[in-house]
Design brief:
InterPro entries: Aminotransferase_I/II_large, HTH_trans_reg/aminotransferase, PyrdxlP-dep_Trfase, PyrdxlP-dep_Trfase_major, PyrdxlP-dep_Trfase_small, Tscrpt_reg_HTH_GntR, WH-like_DNA-bd_sf, WH_DNA-bd_sf. The protein is α/β, with parallel strands linked by helices. It is built from 18 helices and 15 strands.
């Protein structure tokens, strides 16, 4: 297999390798079972580091195009073309590009500014409060360092979560609260238990790309409902219900990812009425709840969990490393989901749950979140002003959170912005990543914490000038 690479072409070497291997496969120049050059060999032939080769081969394996055989090397998979076009993506390259974007977020430290990242900067976190809670738990709850958590989760953390959701007006009881390894596990448990291959679900368009991948992994059919500054378009949802029977409707109702929009009460009531008439449930992802300055009614507040499964977590605020989330639903469903959790992961991290419970119980978390909201609000206001000065349009002005959905003038496909961003050392996520069918869009997600960086300023100005 002969690969042509141009290290000075301005395209990451790992991406060139992936594209070259795909070209060989699609053109049949590389047949199933063909051996790829070894990592050492390919690096030596082209005078490059082994790291981009390793990254490229890992991507190819994860996409089902290449098999890794321990002690032997890498080979073209038996059915590589199925990996390129058989996973439900309208654009066969979208899944691969999206996987690359997800991986890029974890390349830390990095020379590029991740303008589309979803993380709160490390310097904004309450590191002192976190380390104090860790020391306290290490001294007083030795079991948490060694043993499994209980399947339902740390008792004190469950009580703290119950208090929090009751403050939102959700009248739940303790048996309805399940602690999970982040909101991602909560979503995964719901998908595993309630959906089967071939089922249809409604999702927001644009929406959370990792959820889209999870659903496709389970063979679920996605139908996108257009998202507005007031939430999912109820007229569009009602029209789609004439042709589709979704089992679930996944919504991010507060400070929605990626738009930053918050569900309005009139839209919420209409959507709940559709759920009652058509017999589907909402899965309400409220992961950004604590960024909201003034709480508004959730679907779960208005419905009291009759047609809603409510999900939240602390990874966006406390620590992505601790991975603590929660799910609140009717008792029968929670009991079933505990069984799924035990079978798939046994239990969560006792230590992470104990640390999170300590932060909540001692009041350190409340004080930290108050400071965080103020800092995020200031960064977002400044970012909106800077975007406007550069000629950009903002989808809506969020009532909190650090995400904006914005577009540059004269750009109809945000993928065109990639080359401009790269010149300024900026990494973007084209807006089509956030669309369930991968359709082109002029919009991109922007993390407001990054907008003041000189690299972002230069990129925004050049893109706006076009």
């Amino acid at each position: 297999m002969k690969l042509t690479l141009e290290p000075s072409a301005g395209v990451p070497v790992s991406e060139q390798i992936v594209n070259e291997v795909k070209r060989c496969i699609s053109s049949r120049a590389a047949r199933p079972g063909a051996r790829l050059p070894s990592i050492r060999q390919l690096a030596a032939e082209h005078g490059i580091s082994r790291f981009p080769v390793i990254e490229a081969y890992d991507r190819l394996v994860s996409q089902g195009l290449v098999d890794s055989r321990q002690g032997s090397g890498f080979y073209v998979a038996d059915s590589p073309l199925a990996g390129m076009a058989g996973k439900g993506w309208s654009d066969p390259s979208l899944a691969e590009d999206l996987s690359d974007h997800i991986l890029q977020q974890f390349n830390h430290p990095s020379a590029t500014l991740k303008l589309a990242g979803g993380f709160v900067p490390e310097s904004w976190r309450d590191l002192d409060g976190l380390t104090q809670a860790i020391r306290h738990v290490s001294r007083t709850e030795v079991d948490s360092v060694i043993h499994y958590a209980t399947p339902l989760g740390h008792p004190e953390l469950r009580r703290q979560v119950l208090t929090r959701v009751r403050q939102l007006g959700i009248e739940a009881e303790l048996p309805q609260v399940l602690i999970t390894s982040g909101a991602s596990q909560a979503l995964d448990l719901v998908v595993r238990h309630l959906l089967k291959p071939g089922d249809t679900v409604f999702v927001e368009d644009p929406g959370y790309y990792n959820l889209f991948g999870l659903l496709r992994l389970h063979g679920v059919r996605l139908v996108g409902v257009p998202h507005t500054p007031s939430g999912p378009d109820p007229d569009a949802a009602e029209a789609l219900l004439r042709d589709h029977k979704p089992k679930l409707f996944f919504v991010n109702s507060v400070l929605q990812n990626p738009t930053g929009a918050t569900l309005s009460p009139p839209v919420a009531f209409r959507l709940l009425e559709l759920a009652r008439r058509h017999g589907f449930r909402f899965v309400e992802d409220d992961i950004f709840s604590d960024f909201q300055t003034h709480f508004t009614d959730r679907l779960a507040t208005l419905d009291q969990l009759e047609h809603v499964i409510y999900i939240g977590g602390f990874s966006k605020t406390i620590s992505a490393s601790l991975r603590t989330g929660y799910l609140v639903a009717d008792k029968a469903l929670v009991k079933d989901l505990v069984d799924v959790k035990v079978l798939t992961s046994v239990a969560g991290s006792h230590f992470a749950e104990a640390v999170t419970a300590t932060l909540l119980e001692r009041g350190a978390y409340r004080k930290y979140v108050e400071r965080l909201r103020l800092r995020v609000r200031q960064a977002t206001a400044s970012a909106i002003l800077r975007l406007g000065e550069s000629g950009w349009q903002v989808f809506c002005e969020p009532a909190g959170g650090n995400l904006l959905w914005a577009r540059a003038p004269g750009i109809e496909d945000s993928r065109e912005l990639g080359a401009i961003a790269e010149r300024h050392g900026v990494t973007l996520a084209p807006g089509n990543y956030f669309r369930p069918a991968g359709d082109a869009t002029p919009w991109i997600r922007i993390n407001t914490a990054c907008v003041a960086d000189p690299r972002a300023v230069a990129f925004l100005q050049e893109a706006g000038a076009r």
